[in-house]
Specification:
257 residues, Dihydrodipicolinate Reductase, domain 2, 2 domains, 7-stranded parallel sheet, 5-stranded mixed sheet, 7 helices, 12 strands, 26% strand, elongated
Length: 257
């Protein structure tokens, strides 16, 4: 049994993780951490904490699953990794500088951190298909749509998609060479010439559309998340496989068979 501590246990994703771990015969819920834990309970009377350091000392988990917020995740990871405990992270907002720090912490403490922009298996396949299509279609833009409570834009999935596409095509400016924005931001963000457009609306969970354009045709690769349950097979797989990894692992595709 793999003992799992859920950081952000009463959030939208954390609550799903708690249910998944409780129902999985290979995983054991060690407890939960949440700043809003006062007066709340977990299944089977598992302990609840408001402080990650206190939780780690009390329950000694094998893995911490973190679904908190971009502004607090690094503080938690510094504590988790320095104790030699493995981390599975679904919180987004990781810059290259943050990833470098996580890598250094994991290696220095002989442990591992798996950072996953998107745990949906469909999203992994979408990125693989987009990377393949980019070999034949040089022009591409990304439209990502999330619920209106998401704190960061663009999404980690959109950034990862652009980075993977950038590995197989040369960076270049798309559109008319003399185009100009009459309203700042109209053309979206830019990664190696790939434009990323972010939507934040009620009614969405998470969706992404990768649109390729060529002479006389377009190709669209779309992944729609209907509910948060779709992430749970990926989270379960991550909890089970992170024990055999060392250092920084970035992306669910890195642990797929």
């Amino acid at each position: 049994m793999i003992k799992v501590l859920v950081n952000g246990a009463f959030g939208r994703m954390g609550s799903e993780v708690v249910r998944m771990v409780t129902a999985n015969p290979e995983l054991e819920l060690a407890g939960g951490v949440d700043i809003n834990a006062a007066g709340k309970t977990l299944p089977d009377g598992k302990p609840v904490f408001t402080n990650i350091g206190e939780a780690l000392e009390a329950v000694k988990p094998d893995v911490v699953v973190d679904f908190t917020r971009p502004d607090v995740v690094m503080d938690s990871l510094r504590i988790i990794l320095k104790k030699g405990i493995r981390a599975v992270v679904g919180t987004t907002g990781f810059t290259p500088e943050r990833l470098a720090e996580v890598k250094e912490l994991a290696e220095a403490n002989n442990t591992a951190a798996l950072i996953v922009p998107n745990f949906a298996l469909g999203a992994v396949v979408m990125i693989k298909l987009a990377t393949e299509a980019a070999k034949y279609f040089k022009d591409v833009e990304i439209i990502e749509k999330h619920h209106d409570q998401k704190l960061d834009a663009p999404s980690g999935t959109a950034i990862l998609t652009a980075q993977k596409i950038g590995e197989v095509r040369e960076a270049h400016k798309q559109g008319h060479p003399n185009e100009r924005e009459t309203l700042a931001g109209s053309r979206g963000g830019d990664i190696d010439g790939i434009r990323i457009h972010s939507m934040r609306l009620q009614g969405y969970v998470a969706s992404q559309e990768v649109v390729f354009g060529s002479q006389g045709e377009t190709l669209k690769i779309i992944n729609d998340t209907i509910n948060r349950e779709c992430y749970m097979p990926g989270v379960a797989m991550a909890c089970k496989k992170i024990g055999s990894r060392q250092g920084l692992v970035y992306g669910l595709d890195q642990i797929l068979d």
